[in-house]
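for the recovery benchmark. tokens below, seq after
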């Protein structure tokens, strides 16, 4: 093989089977796809060992993709339940799944996940380091962290969150400027703690070239983590967040020089009026690299409804340049999500992504909406259910209180505007 990564193949003008799949899915010319991949503006995360993968592209001009976070914790360590969430996520059309497990034999679960899942698989090696290495945080060496990265790469992980942008410079800025919610990134807080306890530079920053060499061998896309993402709307677009984004832009070019594909991770929590500017800022500072955002959540006072606050922010973000949305469930900030929470989070995120795709004029995005509108005009309930993002829920709502006349619903009954207009246009008399 004369290439190791999708980016390297694109630069050399070599068409991979993954590129062909993505071009067909996205209704895009393969030459245009390859040009954008060579420039780093589109990525196809596809580890050479992920054999069950159905490739997806993330980036400029493509459909907005969504990611589902799952995985066990010390308080909830049921891997069987997490695999049920995986199956549900795949059934609902999530393009990516991140295993954020931080307890027990995570490698066993991850092997099953990668073997089964057609969705892209992502991880945060920092989470797994403590359990994998069986050491206290302070005792872990820089080389130890690299061992965990390689272990995940060998398993077939398609993209990894690496918190390389939180270095001595950005920490100094964070300390000098202060924050209401400090560091809310779990991986970022662990790296910060390790740096403070050992007095050393961030190993993911200090040994960045060695990490890129590992990722290159397996074609793992680096997802440059936002350790200083805002954890409240109070902290959004502050000096810490922006200083880290500047570092991520520098790290992006270094990765591209080694033919490693790059995603950039972003906020977080952010007021609506700041979202568009933040999307433009990332594209400028990170040279057009695809942007992966968590939400952003547009208010901090809706625990139990954060899938909604996230969907509002996600739709605005994706219509202004974000390429990849990380779902948020109603359980955010409260507990590990259950199956019902996962479904609610996926559906909310899919609505946001689709709404943005329509706004962005993505090929084919509006077709389903036009078909739904036509089915509504004809009052064809079965067709409406088949076209709905969640047809099961739509059917359940309709059947809970069914109308006497199925040419309407119980909201309007025989006063249904569609029914009235259809009859008049057909030359019929309207009777009640």
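predicted aa per position
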């Amino acid at each position: 093989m004369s290439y190791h990564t999708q980016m390297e193949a694109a630069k050399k003008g070599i068409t991979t089977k993954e590129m062909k799949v993505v071009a067909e899915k996205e209704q895009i010319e393969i030459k245009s796809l390859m040009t954008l991949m060579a420039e780093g503006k589109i990525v196809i995360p596809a580890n050479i060992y992920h054999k069950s993968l159905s490739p997806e592209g993330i980036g400029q001009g493509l459909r907005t993709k969504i990611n589902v976070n799952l995985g066990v914790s010390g308080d909830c360590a049921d891997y069987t339940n997490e695999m049920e969430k995986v199956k549900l996520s795949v059934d609902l059309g999530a393009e990516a799944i991140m295993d954020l497990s931080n307890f027990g034999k995570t490698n066993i679960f991850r092997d099953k996940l990668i073997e089964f899942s057609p969705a892209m698989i992502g991880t945060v090696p920092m989470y797994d380091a403590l359990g994998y290495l069986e050491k206290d945080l302070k005792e872990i060496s820089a080389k130890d962290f690299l061992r965990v990265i390689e272990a995940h790469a060998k398993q077939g992980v398609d993209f990894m969150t690496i918190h390389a942008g939180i270095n001595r410079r950005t920490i100094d800025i964070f300390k000098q400027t202060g924050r209401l919610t400090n560091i809310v990134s779990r991986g970022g807080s662990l790296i910060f703690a390790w740096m403070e306890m050992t007095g050393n530079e961030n190993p993911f920053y200090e040994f960045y070239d060695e990490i890129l060499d590992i990722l290159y061998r397996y074609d793992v896309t680096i997802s440059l983590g936002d350790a200083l993402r805002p954890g409240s709307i109070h902290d959004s677009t502050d000096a810490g967040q922006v200083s880290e984004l500047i570092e991520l832009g520098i790290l992006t070019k270094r990765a591209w020089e080694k033919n490693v594909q790059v995603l950039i991770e972003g906020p977080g929590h952010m007021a609506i009026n700041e979202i568009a500017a933040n999307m433009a800022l990332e594209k400028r500072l990170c040279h057009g690299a695809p942007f992966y955002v968590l939400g952003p959540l547009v208010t901090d006072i809706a625990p139990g409804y954060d899938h909604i606050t996230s969907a509002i922010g996600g739709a605005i973000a994706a219509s202004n340049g974000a390429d990849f949305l990380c779902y948020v469930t109603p359980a955010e900030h409260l507990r590990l999500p259950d199956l019902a929470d996962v479904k609610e989070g996926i559906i909310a995120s899919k609505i946001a992504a689709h709404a943005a795709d329509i706004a962005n004029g993505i090929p084919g995005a509006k077709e389903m909406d036009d078909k739904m509108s036509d089915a509504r005009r004809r009052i064809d309930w079965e067709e409406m259910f088949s076209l709905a993002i969640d047809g099961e829920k739509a059917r359940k709502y309709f059947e809970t209180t069914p109308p006497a006349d199925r040419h309407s619903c119980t909201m309007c009954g025989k006063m249904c505007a569609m029914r009235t207009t259809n009859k008049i246009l057909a030359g019929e008399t309207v009777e009640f």
